[in-house]
Amino acid sequence: MIKLANRLKSARPSPTLALNAKAKALAAKGADVVSFAAGEPDFDTPTNIKDAIKGALDSGFTKYTATGGIPELKAAIVDKLKAENKLEYSPEQVLVSVGAKHSLYNIFQALLSPGDEVIIFSPYWVSYPDMVRLADGEPVIVETSAHNNWAPDPSQLRKALTPRTRAVILNSPSNPTGGVYSKETLLAIAEAVRGHDCLLVSDDIYERLLYVDGGFQNIANVAPDLASRTVVVNGFSKAYAMTGLRLGYAAGPKELIAGMQMVQDQSTSNPTSVVQKGAVAGLKGPQEPLFAMVKEYAKRRIVMADGLSKIAGVKCPRPDGAFYCFADVGELIGKSYKDQTITGSLKLSELLLEDFLLAAVPGEPFGADGYLRFSFATSQAIIEKGLARLAEFASKVS
Ligand SMILES: Cc1ncc(COP(=O)(O)O)c(C=O)c1O
Predict the structure, then answer these.
(1) pLDDT tens digit string along 305-357?
(2) Most CB atoms closer than 10 Å: which of 64, 107, 140, 387?
(3) Which residues form the domain of 295?
(4) Are 263 and 181 in a shared domain?
(5) Is residue 94 located within the same domain as residue 145?
(6) Is 344 part of any domain?
(7) What integer pLDDT is reported at residue 16 of this predicted model?
């Protein structure tokens, strides 16, 4: 028997990837599965990006590049952050990685020592606590609630901050809730952390997917005095429909980026050479394909959220951002379906997939049992079809 590292005992595999795999396996066997599980755009990658990748391949751009990204891409990222986010960085403050997930992983590997704490607001993206644990850190969960539009409560945050707090993760728009932090919320968070020497990790991966007025802003925008201890994480997966191409980046304090680069030097080295060329084309080329995608998500969001709220036992206000409806299914929990008690969101998700071929992600691994996450990164016709299945299920619950 191979004895695995102790650190693996505290982490668990991604439940969203597991559900996705189960739904795909059923579909591969010919089952008519409706999946709301995937956190990825159903749109194709924009043509100019694909052409740039093909061109790079044809011209033989297939060798190692600098670990942290080609200078052309770093420059394009610096320009983007300045023009769109009003944040100034030098190229040494940017590290390009194999997806935003990799950027986050590098951050915690570079930052944490055993026992260091990282504050995570729940419901949270499933990978945060496990990435922290894999770096020997301790996730400290601070709950937020739907009643408050998922905004963190500054007094709860203050209580959770300790001398061992090394970072606070902010994710707005949020996966799974679709919640967007207002300027007031960001200011309140800034006020709470000001006296603590900790890093702010701003995961801005869904910044483009906003359905409310006012534009995107993160903590470094509203509290410029904290910009020097904020690391911004972003990537190409969601905005440019490039999930499988794996490209993300981090921009932040020089020492942190240098530490992350060391981790990356000794693990993956550079992200795929030709994909970096595609990312340059994405950032510098026409942004219309993005706007078209966002316009379509905005329509689907209404169909999904309003449709969910019409189903008995389900409540879901329209989310402000991202492409997820995080629906309150608390009324269904504890009830029965075909002599089986719906003990929680995991059981509910299992019943929906097995009996109704409907994949929705349970809230439990996001830290919110009583909820299901429905991705609307799928066509309106599929959304309608899935909602009909959920309604049928709900009608059979007693
Ligand atoms: C909140 C959040 N951050 C980061 C990521 C990672 O994105 P990627 O590694 O594809 O760039 C995801 C993907 O689902 C996410 O939902």
Answers:
(1) 999 999 999 999 999 999 999 999 999 999 999 999 999 999 999 999 999 99
(2) 107
(3) 6-44+289-395
(4) yes
(5) yes
(6) yes
(7) 72
| C-alpha 340 – ligand 1 centre gap (Å) | 35
Q: In the structure, what pLDDT confidence band is assigned to residue 24 with cuts at 50, 70 and 90?
A: confident
Mutate which of 45, 101, 249, 275 to test ligand 1's pocket (most atoms within 8 Å of Cβ)? 101
**Residue to mutate (ligand 1; options 96, 205, 206, 324; most atoms within 8 A of CB):** 205
DSSP result, 94-125: EEEESSHHHHHHHHHHHH--TT-EEEEEES--
- Which residue, 284, 308, 334, sits at the end of a domain? 284
Give the chain's radius of gyration (CA, Å): 21
- Is residue 57 one of the residues assigned to a domain? no
Domain boundary among 231, 260, 284: 284
C-alpha separations of 142 from 68, 155, 160 in Å: 33, 10, 7
Residues 123, 245 within the same domain: yes
Contact between 208 and 294 under an 8 Å Cβ cutoff? The reply is yes
CA-proximal residue: ligand 1, atom 14 (nearest)? 39
Q: Rounded mean pLDDT of 247-261?
A: 98
Measured from the Cα of 235, ligand 1's closest atom is 11
pLDDT at 358 (0 to 100): 97
CA of 87 to the centre of ligand 1 (A): 21
What confidence category does residue 285 fall into, taking pLDDT thresholds of 50, 70 and 90?
very high
Residues 273 and 127 in one domain: yes
- Whole-number pLDDT of residue 12: 75
Q: pLDDT for 37-60, tens place per residue?
A: 988 999 999 999 999 999 999 999
**Number of domains present in the structure of the chain:** 2
Q: What is the CATH number of the domain that holds 200?
A: 3.40.640.10
Claim to verify: residue 140 and residue 200 sit in the same structural domain: yes
Q: In the prediction, which pLDDT does 45 show?
A: 97
Q: Would 362 be classed as within a structural domain?
A: yes
Residue 13 has pLDDT above 90, yes or no: no
Question: Same domain, yes or no, for 258 and 301?
Answer: no
Q: Other C-beta atoms within 10 Å of 356: how many?
A: 18
User: Does residue 300's CB lie within 6 angstroms of at least one atom of ligand 1?
Assistant: no
Distance from C-alpha of 1 to C-alpha of 381, rounded to nearest angstrom = 49
Residue 206 lies in a domain: yes
At residue 114's C-alpha, the angle toward residues 109 and 116, to 5°, is: 80
| Distance spanning both ends of the chain, measured CA to CA | 47
